[in-house]
Amino acid sequence: MSDPATGAGPSANPFTQVPIEITISVGRARPLVRDLLRLQRDAVLPLDRRVDDPVELYVGDKLIARGELTEVEGEEGQLAVRLTEVADLQNGL
């Protein structure tokens, strides 16, 4: 296990190699069930956010960062998130 006092880095901890899944939330919709049942292909479901609003990054239900959607340079059409705010996970957001 790494020791902050000795400066041993996270590479000494085998858990640093475990992948995690991050969920990016771009907004929420709250349609009525009857409206949801009527949705068909090409329907538009309005969200509670605007195109330029920040997105939120979650691990499980824990907010870890906020950012803006962008396109990966050199990869046309590939989405990415540029972080604008990162949570202090040790001391709270």
From TrEMBL:
InterPro entries: FliN-like_C (IPR001543), FliN/MopA/SpaO (IPR051469), FliN_T3SS_HrcQb (IPR001172), SpoA-like_sf (IPR036429). Pfam families: FliMN_C (PF01052). Signal peptide: none annotated. GO terms for biological process: bacterial-type flagellum-dependent cell motility; chemotaxis. GO terms for molecular function: cytoskeletal motor activity. Residues 17-87 form the Flagellar motor switch protein FliN-like C-terminal domain. It is found in: Cell membrane. Keywords: Cell membrane, Cell projection, Chemotaxis, Cilium, Flagellar rotation, Flagellum, Membrane. It is a peripheral membrane protein. GO terms for cellular component: bacterial-type flagellum basal body; plasma membrane. Belongs to the FliN/MopA/SpaO family. This is Flagellar motor switch protein FliN.
